[in-house]
Amino acid sequence: MTARWWIAFVAVCTAGGVAAQDVGQLSCGVASTYDLTVRPDALLFERPEVAPHSVRLHDGSLATDGRAVALRADEQDRVALFERDVRALVPKAKAIASDGVDVAARAVREEAGRASPGSLSSGELDRVLASRVADIKRRIAASQSTRDWQADAMRAYAQEIVSDITPVLSQDVGSEAMQLAMNGDLDGAAALRDRVADLSTGGQARVLARLEAALRPRVQALCPAVRQLLDLQSGWRDASGQPLMLIETGG
């Protein structure tokens, strides 16, 4: 399965709420079949399906599947620049992801408030949200692998936030709905339950759409640097002499 290029992880996590024709714009028009791990001593690109399965870059050197690639001096310079530029992009991309978690949490809180205004009064929902946000942001800050930043991971983070507040919301709504029913407002109780059910089914798509709108400009601001990587890898070959494309056009 083709993995999105790591710098586009924020855009990909919002793709569920974006038209297909917009995804290329969000992902800077590039993609990769590799997962990237940023190690202190090297960049490691890995994929299971097609050789080369691993590509290692460090200080102007290049190795594929454990075999060193002979490079000219100018190619060594471009490999070194590629590594330097990727390392410079990582903290910027992680900052976008971390801020995206805050955007998602605010959107979820607003969704909960619209569904059941009374659910915000106790402060429990805010406590649960703050705890989950802090946990996710710690994971993003500590991670050095795009496996933690790509579409599935980011969607899972959004779902974690929604799932965490569901028990709190359900408890508050149950009490509120029962009170409405006891006061004879059966329609009001039913409408309240419907709004909460809609948060579970349609709320995530709305949260992702908010993320897309908020983060699109910041993702696009990084696109020139991402596209520069395409130029730096031009002409690279693996240890078997086959063309090597760590990233490619078409995201």
Describe this entry's structure for a reader.
61% of the residues lie in helices and 9% in strands. The protein is of the alpha+beta class. The chain has one domain. Residues 1-26 have low confidence and may be disordered.
Describe how the helices and strands are arranged:
Elements: H1 9-13, H2 20-26, E1 30-31, E2 35-38, E3 43-46, E4 54-58, E5 61-64, E6 67-68, H3 73-115, H4 124-142, H5 151-182, H6 186-221, H7 223-232, E7 248-249
Antiparallel strand pairs: 1-7, 2-3, 3-4, 4-5, 5-6
Helix pairs in contact: 3-4, 3-5, 3-6, 3-7, 4-5, 5-6
Pfam families: DUF2884 (PF11101)
Brief synopsis:
The chain has 251 residues and is an alpha+beta fold.
Descriptive tags:
single chain, 251 residues, two-stranded antiparallel sheet, 7 strands, DUF2884
The tally of beta strands, per DSSP, is 7
Percent of residues in beta strands: 5-15%
Secondary structural class: alpha+beta
Q: In sequence order, what are the helices and strands, one letter per element?
A: HHEEEEEEHHHHHE
Helix content: 55-70%
Shape: elongated
The largest β sheet comes out as:
5 strands, antiparallel
Alpha-carbon Rg, integer = 22 Å
Strand order of the largest sheet: 2-3-4-5-6
Q: Any idea how many domains? A: 1
Q: What is the overall number of helices?
A: 7
Low confidence ranges? 1-26
**Average pLDDT, all residues:** 77
